Amino acid sequence: MDRSENNRKVALSRWRNVRQRDLEHLRTLEHDERCGLYLARLLAYLAADGSVTVNRKRNKERGHSDIRFYPDDLVLVDLFTETGSYLYRRTPTVRKAIGHYSTYLSSQVACAHLSQFGRFGSLEWRVPHSILTTRERKREWLRAFFDCEGYVGKNCIRVESVNERGLDDVQRLLGDFSIPCRRYTYTRKTVSWSLNHILNIGTLKGRGRVERVRNRP
To answer: Which residues, in sequence order, are CB contacts of 60 under 8 Å at separation 6+?
Structure first.
């Protein structure tokens, strides 16, 4: 056996060992409520400003599996880092871009785990009801989503999305907390662009709710 082939086998063996440890780590968190809260937070981040990508073209056995998140606030970078480290034993890579941060972590186990809860494209994301089994998890998902997508105006809090079904889910989730909101739709100037859907939460009482988003468990 030549050295390159031996090195390849050693690398694959090391990777399989790491993967096994990651799987065991996730299993230890299954009944940890803190895990449920962190997962709700991460799924909201990915719905709002993130993606899960699996690319197997280069290596059919291993490939590249990345979780990416593009926040515009350093506080969200810190929360994403805390969440990724707790759930998947990975410290995300962070780069400063123009007007936002580019963060990602690579883990096949993490991507496979998150993919169980749906897709994360701008037209595909949905509220992950299967994981939001407690009021605290629902609250955490809403906090994280509005951290990324919410705009606080003078008289309202607004969220915009091209994903009508996803925004329907958000509206129903707000209803679980008796938070009233209104829906609007408008056609953008470029005909080929998708319709834009707007969710408005009215006045100062709603604004206070968003400001309390920073009080994390």
So the answer is: none
Give the alpha-carbon dihedral of 77, 94, 105, 162, to 10 degrees.
Answer: 60
Helix (H) or strand (E) holding 185: strand 182-186
User: β-strand 196-202 against 100-106: which pairing, if any?
Assistant: unpaired
* Residue 137: count of CB within 10 angstroms of its CB: 20
Please name each of the domains of the chain with its CATH number.
3-214 (3.10.28.10)
CA distance 15 to 11: 6
Joined together, the tokens standing for residue 197 give 């859907």
Residue 115 neighbours by CB under 8 Å, 6+ apart: 52, 54
* Percentage of the chain exceeding pLDDT 90: 54
Per-residue pLDDT tens digits for 130-139: 999 999 999 9
